[in-house]
């Protein structure tokens, strides 16, 4: 049996290039006791991947050059010497960007694909959904009647944040980069307001939609978006930093928020979300979100590309805003 | 009787200029019922004054052009039609940059000058001391054994923060702009480490003095200092923004902290201190600080200049780091 894997060959200093990755094949080795083999069906394409290509000074080590790219992947156990993960079950976790993964099960969770799609466990029921859930509820602490603004709102994190905030009784504003995405936020996700940051004046629109300011800003973008949001905070505002996709391709030259003193005058605070800190609570959270999906309160949109050979091009879609919905690469 | 007053004549866009202020005289009018007249003896020269010269989009309105400059001032009641403020008592509050102030007592507090110096009520027992006290204790929440770094440490806020942190059992690092100020921090204020930011590498020194990172960063400076501190946060760190003296002369071009994402990976937060939010608790806090001064646990240093005609030059000392200790202008 042959494994095909995407390897990290170069650490880019700016935008990701095709030459930063390699595509290799190798023979799948024998299982040791306690291990099992996963036939991977789908990969989650996340902004976090860009950070994993760096040497690793943040919350998690960078990927070693020449080794398989780190990836949240999902698939079926097809061989096993581990009684907790029997042949036939479906699993999700850091299984790598490859067709076949051998693991001892550390950090791997069994997923239920009878009542939910396998790919949902990479998105709204996986790391991005958990990031939205815990970032909003534990860090943002929404209260009914408050106004929340979420950037990159049509992505899986942003759309989940906004929809959970609606469930919690908030007024929800989202920004995205196209008319289609804005229409999706209003029509399908039930947002109150959508701002096309490419054609509309973000500052003016925030002042229009949130005249008393924004109580929670959930940021996936950074740069000018963060700075403009800081100028529109309500008293007691919480700024939850999840990501900074506008800055990831030039990490040596990050734009700091000049309006950071607005946090002081708003009597607010800025904090962040590291989703792994809540990993013990993921099962309960996925169950709650699955319930909301079943009730039609959370709408899920996926953007699916096929083939490991398209790994780089698919990853680049995230940084140019070309994806529309949770980006998945099927194997 | 004649009042001499400093008026705001121009809103500077950069550094403060002598022509931004006027010096006028006027006849002191008759008191109305409920009012009293204060013969002002000393003015507090604070970095906040620079913000009050702007049109006012922050926590407090800007000073109107042509009117007396806002100022925390202290003096003696010499005439009164208010039973709560009798002739002979000493008071402190926003009495303006002038020799004689008429007030109805709103926001004015009676101070005890028998056991403490009048000028202390403008510094360590006044707004700056309260800013240090509540910013550190309520926002920074120091715990014994933690490491705190305070910038502009030889100023009244910084030196008070550091000395209270020592009382609370923390390891204290301070930065200042001269050898004399650093020596003062160690020898007189009991700081554990002092960094001369003009001659030493702040990042290298923070890594040396706080190898596991800084638990509390109390910032009075902004700019590169804030950015470097963010790169040296311990897990669970609190960043308390008090001021940004390095940025006040060019508010239209503030340097945002590029390392703001370090707050996320440190699982920390950034917040601020608005001292007026704690005004009801000031009496208890001043009493506690006065006790620490009496016990020799808090050392106070003042830099006194005489004469309202020196108002601008004295204010400018704050922004060039020329003052050494709490800057006071006596009348």
From TrEMBL, chains A, B:
Ribonucleoprotein listed as a keyword: no
Oxidoreductase in keyword set: yes
Pfam families found in the cross-reference section: ADH_N_2 (PF16884), ADH_zinc_N (PF00107)
Domain Enoyl reductase (ER), first and last residues per copy: 14-329
Keywords for the protein's UniProt record, in alphabetical order: Oxidoreductase
Molecular-function annotations in GO: oxidoreductase activity, acting on the CH-CH group of donors, NAD or NADP as acceptor
Protein name: NADP-dependent oxidoreductase
Organism the protein comes from: Costertonia aggregata
């Amino acid at each position: 049996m042959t494994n095909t894997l995407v390897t990290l060959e170069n650490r880019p200093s700016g935008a990701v290039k095709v030459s930063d990755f390699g595509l290799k094949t190798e023979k799948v080795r024998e299982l040791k006791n306690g291990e099992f083999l996963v036939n991977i069906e789908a990969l989650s394409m996340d902004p976090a991947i860009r950070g994993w290509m760096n040497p690793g000074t943040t919350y998690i080590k960078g990927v070693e050059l020449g080794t398989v790219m780190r990836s949240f992947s999902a698939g079926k156990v097809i061989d096993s010497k581990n009684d907790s993960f029997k042949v036939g079950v479906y699993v999700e976790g850091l299984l790598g960007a490859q067709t076949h993964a051998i693991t001892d099960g550390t950090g791997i969770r069994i997923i239920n694909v009878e009542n939910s799609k396998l790919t949902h466990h990479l998105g709204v029921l996986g790391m991005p959904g958990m990031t939205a859930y815990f970032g909003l509820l534990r860090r943002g602490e929404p209260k009914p009647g408050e106004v929340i603004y979420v950037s990159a709102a049509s992505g899986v994190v942003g759309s989940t944040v906004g929809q959970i905030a609606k469930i919690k009784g908030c007024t929800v504003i989202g920004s995205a980069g196209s008319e289609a995405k804005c229409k999706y936020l209003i029509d399908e996700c039930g947002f109150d307001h959508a701002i096309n940051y490419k054609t509309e004046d973000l500052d003016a629109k925030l002042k229009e939609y949130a005249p008393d300011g924004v109580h929670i800003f959930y940021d996936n973008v950074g740069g000018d978006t963060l700075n403009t949001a800081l100028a529109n905070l309500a008293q007691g505002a919480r700024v939850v930093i999840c990501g900074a996709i506008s800055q990831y391709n030039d990490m040596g030259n990050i734009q700091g928020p000049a309006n950071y003193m607005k946090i002081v005058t708003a009597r607010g605070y800025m904090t962040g979300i590291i989703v792994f800190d809540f990993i013990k609570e993921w099962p309960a959270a996925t169950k709650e979100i699955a319930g909301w999906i079943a009730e039609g309160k959370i709408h899920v949109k996926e953007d699916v590309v096929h083939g490991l050979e398209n790994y780089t091009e698919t990853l680049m879609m995230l940084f140019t805003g070309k994806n529309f919905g949770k980006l998945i690469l099927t194997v």
